[in-house]
Amino acid sequence: MFFLVTLSLQFLGTGTSTGVPVIGCDCHVCRSDDSRDRRLRSSVVIRSDETTILIDTTPDLREQALQADLRQLDAVLFTHAHADHTAGLDELRSFNALQNEHIPVWATRETGVELESRFAYAFADTFPRYGLKPDLTLSHIMGPFQVNELTVTPIPIMHGRLPIVGFRIGDIAYLTDLKTYPESSADLLKGLDILVITALRQDPHPAHLTLAESLLEIERIAPKRAFLTHISHDFGLYKDVADSLPAHVQIGIDGKRFTSNH
């Protein structure tokens, strides 16, 4: 059951694991002087008047937080354990210092095990004050859960052969690194205002939706608005692709913010 709350979604990054431009690449996308073709690793922040939720801690988190003037986190949600979605976890210590408290993080049991292995120091209380390292409390995702007044519904999806999760908060859903999903997840995606969905590139990929595949899924899910993310330099130039999309579909742009009521 969803209650009327004003939510905003801001793209912190819309790029794939390499980001765009790619190191050492001279393709026309990587050499573009259009700021819409520059992409940090994929992440969003969802806000209500009372609550701020970060999804994934990319290697670019410091830069992303500074650009978005992000100063408060009520929870961090992890889609999966790949480095482009977790490697910036250490930057959370700045929020510990600002808030003078532990920060709750949510992940599936499998992702949580990976996080505790790679970042064991972040889950052990070893220093007398906040900000010297991340101080996190980990909760395993077993079903819908609350972050203050917001209900978060995990959406089981497949990243190639890897089970991961997307998230629905109100009538916003975030599905990154998506290739397929079960029918039970389709039922959780009904009645969306905003859908954020992977559109990696034009050519087929074993673990990510292509642009054409993403457009088919958008048609199936039927949100009011859809935004494409986790985009590589093989996607094409923003200006070349944007005009070919349906009116309710947009290419995600780093830093852009949108609002929704639920």
Descriptive terms for the model:
28% strand, 7 helices, alpha/beta, 262 residues, 7-stranded mixed beta sheet, 19% helix
Characterize the structure shown.
The protein is of the alpha/beta class and 262 residues long. Helices cover 19% and strands 28% of the residues. The chain contains seven helices and 14 strands. The strands form two sheets. It has a seven-stranded mixed sheet. It has a seven-stranded mixed sheet with strand order 7-8-9-10-11-12-13. Strand 5, helix 4 and strand 6 form a beta-alpha-beta unit. The longest helix has 11 residues. The model has no long low-confidence stretch (mean pLDDT 97).
What is the secondary structure topology, with strand pairs?
Layout: E1 6-13, E2 43-47, E3 52-55, H1 61-68, E4 75-77, H2 83-86, H3 93-99, E5 103-107, H4 109-118, E6 136-140, E7 145-147, E8 150-159, E9 162-169, E10 172-175, H5 183-187, E11 194-198, H6 211-221, E12 225-229, H7 238-242, E13 249-251, E14 257-261
Parallel strand pairs: 3-4, 4-5, 5-6, 10-11, 11-12, 12-13
Antiparallel strand pairs: 1-2, 1-14, 2-3, 7-8, 8-9, 9-10
